[in-house]
Write a structure and sequence with these properties.
single chain, alpha/beta, Rossmann fold, eight-stranded mixed sheet, 8 strands, 19% strand, globular
């Protein structure tokens, strides 16, 4: 089975967005499951090393209708650039367009990378869109000063401090004062987090969980989606700092642990993969896991 691709232009908040819909070329039956690919960061619908193109076509070749699109202000879509926390209108408009283009669809999974994954969670929390039956969250973006500092200390600075080349460079005056200031700030914030854990007996670094905290909002969004019967796939790259920071955040907010353990949730770790998994074997695992998620959706 091969894929057929159609360009669609659709409205969103007074602007025009461009999407590419990939459908099975000669399906035995009209597709009932779809995937909406939401990109993260300053990217457009093609993605690094054409990753979104390959994913959409692979899904279509396996009987799934897939759509990738440019949010407002990106690629070939008009309007001012939107950040992932303001993607609700873009995602909703893209879903409307996908269901118009493929009227046989019954349910859709939102597939998001980085900020796209975060946007997907915030969308289902804010809209409770019944058309969305699954989420594929790939290296989700979540950042606070403390989680960034803890991640840097654990996964970068400690390694650097154990390298003789670093100390020789420092003694020669080859390390910029700004770099030393960043190291000192990261160590202070990490020490603060460690002290909070010891004093409270739990990995909580704030005085309370605020609904304004992105990590808390994401955790509650996931929990709410699971409670409504939505299936969630979490994909994490082993060599990606965004994924590592997400895990640090999850460690600091206990609600995440129940999300991971939910029977409708599944986690896939990609050894040796980086943020956009250019390795063929890693990309193939992402494709297989996504198809598995879609097959489980009703």
């Amino acid at each position: 089975m091969t894929a057929t691709e159609t360009a669609v232009v659709f409205p969103c908040a007074g602007e025009e967005l461009l999407g590419i819909v990939s459908t099975p070329a000669a399906p035995a039956a009209p597709p009932t499951r779809g995937a909406l690919i939401v990109v993260g960061g300053p990217q457009y619908r093609v993605g690094s090393h054409r990753m979104f193109v390959h994913l959409a076509r692979h899904l279509a070749e396996n009987g799934v209708a897939a759509m990738r699109f440019d949010a407002r202000g990106m690629g070939d879509s008009s309007g001012p650039r939107q950040y992932f926390e303001d993607f609700d209108a873009d995602i909703g408009a893209a879903l409307d367009a996908l269901f118009r283009e493929v009227p046989s669809l019954r349910t859709v999974a939102i597939w998001g990378l980085c900020g796209g994954a975060t946007a997907a969670l915030l969308y289902v929390q804010g809209t409770r869109d019944a058309r969305v039956g699954g989420l594929a969250l790939v290296n989700p973006w979540v950042r606070t000063d403390i989680t960034q500092a803890v991640t840097q200390v654990k996964h970068y600075y400690l390694q650097r401090l154990l390298q003789g080349t670093f100390w020789r460079k420092l003694l020669r005056g080859g390390v910029a004062l700004t770099s030393l200031a960043e190291l000192w700030r990261a160590l202070r914030l990490t020490a603060r987090a460690t002290a909070a854990m010891r004093s409270t007996g739990r990995p909580q670094i704030r005085e309370g969980d605020s609904d304004d905290d992105l990590g808390v909002r994401m955790a509650h969004a996931w929990a709410g989606f699971s409670a409504l019967g939505g299936r969630t796939l979490l994909i994490l790259s082993e060599r990606d700092y965004t994924a590592k920071e997400f895990l640090e955040t999850a460690h600091m907010h206990p609600v995440w642990q129940s999300n991971f353990a939910h029977p409708l949730a599944r986690r896939v770790d990609l050894p040796e993969a980086d943020h956009t998994f250019p390795q063929p074997e890693a990309h193939a695992r992402v494709e297989r896991a996504t198809l598995d998620l879609l097959a489980e959706m009703t």
